[in-house]
Design goal:
EC 2.7.7.65; alpha+beta; 6-stranded mixed β-sheet; 402 residues; Rhopdopsin 7-helix transmembrane proteins; Alpha-Beta Plaits
């Protein structure tokens, strides 16, 4: 037979151990808010179990009001952790709503002196927070670990339902909950269920946070730290995937003209600003020209130094030239380099039909076109496709327009 007093003592030991672990985790790295809220939750669980264990021994203000207040905060603090791990904001007023409602209810003698009314009120608060966490687990926005989140939500629902069922049972049997003074198998069974589900929920939240951290590290490894664009490795991995999918692709290889002069004359800080502003120009120009037509979003990356690349999936060579010319014109107008210096860019364009060549070959073709743009006077767009070379600069386009 389950002994409720023994289970409460075991619960205190388990909760205390978890609290020590998560407090040490947070103290070691205070950039981990999830660890802080789990530590607060397990600390509240420890204090709550200790208070309830002292029922009929310590004053009611400790065993009833303070004990149940701690248990309410167990769910509240864990709810905050669940929200944060899903990338949502910490709740405001609702953070302390359950504790405030419980305190106000205890101020009314008819409620505070009635075991049934107290149990009903506090169980409703427990169940509300459990169901709220269910909703957080099942809401959209995180595709990873759907099965584990659904399982955790189901266990929370079971905990809420079992809490309400236990309250109804004790109300009909007029049985006060006193784990030290008498053996109460149903109460002990509920405590065991609570302890198991609580530990599972902590494990689920911790696992989700570890998954989030792995994703953040993956993004850092794939991102250029200065411009926020993809780096070379991430670009090559993604671009190879498009090439393997037999897509029509076009590459724009871009190099800022005379970038060394900017660094030498204006300093490296100015060079960094030039790179970030150029990255902004590149992103906006490609979005305006391509994304609006329903085609796939372009892949943009900084390959290194002042060299950038843009992959367009779907458009033909002429569309890629149009995008390249728009970028060239935006940079030349100086809208992204207004620190006292101007910028121009040379662009090499290479396009390929589905399956005609791989990304490395296309980069080599774009690089050859880029060198022609540099040799031809810079601030121009050169295009190469299957041996066909097309030279596009500002002067030739003006002549065509005339």
């Amino acid at each position: 037979m389950l002994d409720s007093a023994t289970l409460f003592i075991a619960s205190i030991a388990v909760d205390f151990g978890l609290a020590v672990y998560f407090w040490s985790l947070w103290i070691g790295d205070r950039r981990q808010p999830i660890a802080l809220w789990i530590a607060a939750s397990t600390s509240s669980a420890t204090l709550g179990s200790l208070c309830v264990t002292l029922r009929d021994i310590a004053p009611n203000i400790v065993t009833i009001w303070a004990g149940q207040l701690c248990f309410i905060n167990v769910f509240v603090f864990l709810w905050v952790a669940v929200r944060l791990v899903h990338g949502r904001q910490r709740p405001g007023v609702m953070l302390w709503a359950g504790a405030a409602i419980w305190t106000l209810l205890c101020l009314f003698p008819p409620i505070f002196q009635s075991e049934n009314l107290r149990s009903t009120c506090v169980t409703v608060i427990y169940a509300a927070y459990c169901l709220t966490m269910c909703g957080e687990m099942l809401r959209g926005g995180m595709r990873r670990q759907r099965l584990s989140r659904a399982l955790t939500a189901g266990l929370l629902f079971i905990l809420a339902a079992s809490s309400l069922a236990l309250t109804i049972y004790t109300a009909f049997n007029q049985e006060a909950f006193s784990p030290v003074q008498r053996s109460q198998p149903l109460a002990a069974l509920w405590l065991l269920l609570f302890l198991v589900i609580y530990i599972v929920l902590i494990v689920a939240v911790t696992t989700l946070e570890l998954s989030n951290e792995a994703e953040r590290q993956r993004q850092v490894a794939a991102t250029d730290g200065l411009t926020g664009l993809m780096n070379r490795r991430a670009f090559m991995e993604t671009a190879q995937g498009h090439a393997a999918a037999q897509c029509d692709i076009a590459l724009l290889l871009l190099d800022i003209d005379h970038f060394k002069r900017i660094n030498d004359r204006w300093g490296h800080a100015a060079g960094d600003r030039a790179l970030t502003r150029f990255a902004t120009a590149l992103s906006q120009a490609t979005d305006q020209e391509v994304a609006g037509d329903g085609e796939q979003r372009p892949l943009i990356a900084r390959l290194g130094g002042e060299e950038f690349v843009c992959m367009l999936v779907g458009p033909d060579a002429r569309k890629a030239e149009k995008v390249g010319e728009r970028i060239r014109a935006m940079v030349e107008r100086g809208g992204y380099a207004n620190d006292g210096f101007g910028m121009t860019v040379s662009i090499g364009v290479a396009a390929s039909f589905a399956g005609a060549c791989d990304v490395d070959e296309l980069l080599l073709s774009a690089d050859r076109a880029l060198y022609r743009a540099k040799d031809g006077g810079r601030n121009r767009v050169e295009h190469e496709e299957q041996g066909l070379v097309v030279s596009l600069d500002a002067t030739s386009r003006t002549a065509k327009a005339m």
